[in-house]
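Schema walk-through. Below, the input block comes first and the output block second. Nothing else is stored per chain. Lengths vary across the set, and this one has 373 residues.
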Amino acid sequence: MAAISDSDLYNRLKLVHCKLPPSTLHLLLKQFSCAGAIFDASTEQLGKAHLTHAQINRIQTLNNKKIDRDLAWLDRADHGILFYDDTGFPQQLREINDPPYALFYIGDIDYLQQPQLAMVGSRTPTTAGKQTAENFAHHLSDAGLTITSGLALGIDAACHHGALKGIAGTVAVVANGLHTIYPKANTKLAEAISLNGCLITESPVGGEPHKSLFPQRNRIISGLSIATLVTEAAINSGSLITTRHAIEQGRDVFAIPGSIHNPLAKGCHQLIKSGAKLVETASDILEELLPLVNSSSIRHTSAAETDLGKVEKLQNGLDSSYQTLLKHMEFEPVGIDELVERSNLNASEVASMLLILELQSQVVSQNGLYSRV
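--- output ---
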C-alpha cells in the first residue's frame, strides 16, 4: 500500500472505532471502496449495505476524540498500525475468513513475517507444565520458529519467556488496546517482547480487555501461525478456542500429553483423541512443519535432543545417591516421605538432594511435591 494521507488515516481509524464485525467491515469496504466514502454515505445508502440501525448510528455519531487519542499514541517511534491492504500485513493472517482490518503494534513488525508457531495453554499450570512450555518455546525459537501467544498468565507467559531466550523472538497478541498492558503482572515481559518481538492487537487505543474480546483475539493467534501447540489445558480451557480457530483455518494442531491424573492434561488428551498430533519433543514439531515453510528458515537440529544429552551427562556425573533418588522418582508429583520410603535414604538427605536437583533444573517442585523434568 502506498503512503496514506492524513485524512485517509483519520477515516480508517474512525472505521476501527465503529466496532463492526471484521466480515461486515470488509464487505462494506468492497461496496464503498474506501473508508471516507462510508462516512460520506447517507443513512439510506448504509441501510442498503445491510447494516443494522445500531451500526449505522455508530458510524454517524462517532466521537472524534477517540481518533485524536489514537493519533497521539501513533506519534511514538515504536508504535504503529498495519491495515489489511498494507503490503506489510502478514499474508498468513490475510488468508483467514475474518482477518482484522487493522493491527496496532509496538515493536518490530518484521517478526510478523517469520514462520510462527502458536503456543497456548492454562493460565494456572503446574510447575512442570510451565517448565515444559518454556523449554519447548526456547528450543523452537532457536530452531527458527517465532513463538506467538496471548500474553496471559501461566503457559502463555512461559512460552514468551522461553522464546525470548531463542533467536526467533516472540509475538504477543492481546485483546485490549496497547495504551496499557493486561495483565499488569506481565508488564516487564511485554517490555522485553517489544524489544525482541512485537505486541499486536486489533483493539484501538483505550480498548479495555472485555471477556468477549479474547475469543476474537485467539483467531489472530492461530491465524498468524502455521500450527498451534497446546501445553496443559483443561476440558473447558479458553486455549481450546484457539485450536478450534486453527482447525477452521486449516492449520495443524499439536498437543503435549500429560498424566491421566492431571485435570490440566484432559484438554490435550481430548485434542489428541480428535486428531491433534501427539508431541513429545521439539523435533516432532519440526519434522511436521519443515515441508510447510522454507527449510532455510527453520533449523532441523533439535535443541531438545541437545539438552537431553546435557541432562544425561549431568546425571552420569552425579554420585550413586543422586542416581538412586532419580531412579525412584517419576514424572508425576511425589512427596518426600514417599521418596524416602522408595529409596531407603533418610529424609534430610533426600531434602538436600532435591534442592540441588531443582537448582540443576532436573526436578521441579509444587505444593511440597516433586517430579522429574
